[in-house]
User: What shape does this take?
Amino acid sequence: MSKKQDLKKAVRKAYKEGMSAKEIFESLQADYPDKENLFDSVSNYPSLKQRKKHRLAQYSLIALIVLAVGFTILQSTYGSLILLAFLIYYLLQWNLKSYLYIYVLNGFGAFALLTLLFMQDNASYLAFFATLGYLLSVTGLAIYLDKKLSPNHEKRKLMVEGTNGKKKYRYQYIFKEE
Assistant: This one.
């Protein structure tokens, strides 16, 4: 396993144990000296408190995507099945990047839906509005979760004057707990 995968695993484990982002950052600094990568990894997962608070919305989103998987299987279009399975895996990991994947996939879905509507003469408006409603509900729920679960951690660039009078820059990592 790569060092980056080990870091992600360690961060997920620490969050499951109920540690705060600042505690995780400080405890893993000795094992992972790349502070920027460590900060990004810690900032990519919501706290246990946030996860408990928004659990219903998260699992509703997963249920909607599982519904899409079932519909995909019924229509025998297995190409999109792999993408949806990948998305469900990331959502179950509580990885905040998974919401970006939802935005992109739903954008392509909306584009394909509109293209089909304008290219087919006998397009079913019921199917169009049902699909559009599905895309909007999944996207809306993803946006809601992305806003509520994303931590407000900051990385500030500070100017520090060295002993010889030269100006240097270093980063200060600020963890805002909710």
In short: The CA atoms of residues 73 and 81 lie 7 Å apart. The mean pLDDT is 76. The radius of gyration is 21 Å.
